[in-house]
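Reviewers asked in the last cycle whether our approach scales beyond single polypeptides. To address this, we selected a multi-component target totalling 515 residues and predicted its structure end to end. The input consisted of the following lines:
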Amino acid sequence: MTIKTIGGHLLFVAAFLFFWELMAQQGQLDPTFFGRPSGIAAYLWDGFFVNGKLWRELGYTAAGASISFGLGSLAAIALGMLFAAVPKLERLADPYLMVLNAMPRIALAPLFLLWFGLGLGSKIAVGCSLTFFIVLSSTVAGTRGVSQDHVVLSRTFGATPRQLFFKVTLPSAVPVIFSGLRLGLIYAMLGTIGAELIAAEHGLGQTLAYLQATFSMDGVMGILVLLAMLGMSVTYGMARLERFLLKWQ
Amino acid sequence: MNDLAPLTAAVTAPAIELSRLSISFGELLAVQDVSLSVEQSTFLSIVGPSGCGKTSILNLLAGLIDGHRGQVTVAGKQPAAGNAGIGYMLARDSLLPWRTTLGNVCYGMEIRGTPQAEREGKARHLIDRVGLKGFENAYPKALSHGMRQRAALARTFCLTAPILLMDEPFGALDAQTKLQLEDLLLELWNTERRTVVFVTHDLAEAVALSDRVIVMSSRPGRIIADIGVTLSRPRSVRALQKDAAFHELYAKVWSKLEEGLTSRDH
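The resulting structure, written as structure tokens, was:
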């Protein structure tokens, strides 16, 4: 982006916020429903720099999302690899996985809340269940996309199944697995926040539900801004990591 | 003198021996009754119309397919995938995109258990010989077709295998690059003179490179001619383009191939 386009965007956002503020002030846009930019800024400032409460909530959500992402994707990659090594197992497991995957996983949240309690456990369970399937299907797709030329070449060299797996199947699956991981991270956040909205003691989702119930729209809008920022920064980080690891592409 | 006998036998034994070989895929008979003996250090080409089973013979020698009748011996053994006596070069370069040139050239040796230090030295030497010096750390996406095939040549020649099987390695290249790579192949081959079985549908290529050209008929593939190429070595493929003896041999191979094509029409 050039300085000019950045300047253009800043100008646009400033104008947007200005008109929002103006309309809220003159009563054309009810702040009870939409909040107002100055109120949102004040809420975020208070939350981070005055009482510091938002740091803790952000920490809970980030912990829930990253643990569910880590566990869910590790389990998915491991199972996907196992499927690649033992195709028969995949055929056996496929119908069950299909049923589980077809189910809207957020609907499991009440069950998980009962099993794992109001704390982090239930958030991780929901996040994991969402991340797992998306990463699993990309892992399976990745291991299937192996070039036959590479397999034939390796066989003429005398590659053992183990060598074939680690030197051909795994590296050629990495780009597809990565696209699954990128989605999986978003799903992990979605699962965590969704579960927090339903019932929790902490987290941005819980805060959001509380603010909404108490008609504090500045707070609701503030949390939404925060969530968008959070989502953007993890996606950006992931893209950087991907570019580093897949520089051969 | 008696203890020398097995040694002499080993030296004179043919590198590859096919006797009454037929290959079929289910109902389809691809190769019929092929008998062929390839002496060591011979550069032999197999030419024929597409579908004549020339690649099938190569795949069989490499142990990649079965379903054959008749006797097959490669370096004194039954064909088996991963036979360390064989180096196979496929039609496509098949470079691993996540490996650099150096990593790709090392790949075959790595699988065959060459120690790390040795394979790197050897790979660098071959990379230099095929003209890819300076591209050791480049990924395949950055290489042209010709360069990729050079890397594949280096990977093949890094192997210690005494028999090299090549399946139309230059088939997809443009005419200029092809001539360059043919000369490169001759240069690499000339230093060690390994046994080569080279499959192609390009007759000029077959005549220019080989000591012996086998012409096969269309399906089911049979041998219809076995022509010795008497051109002196070392050769330059580019110089041969203007050589009368070369064109004479080319015409001879071509007329044999034509006979094979027409005999099928009745």
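The mean pLDDT of chain A is 92. We regard this as preliminary and will revisit it once experimental data from Aim 1 are available.
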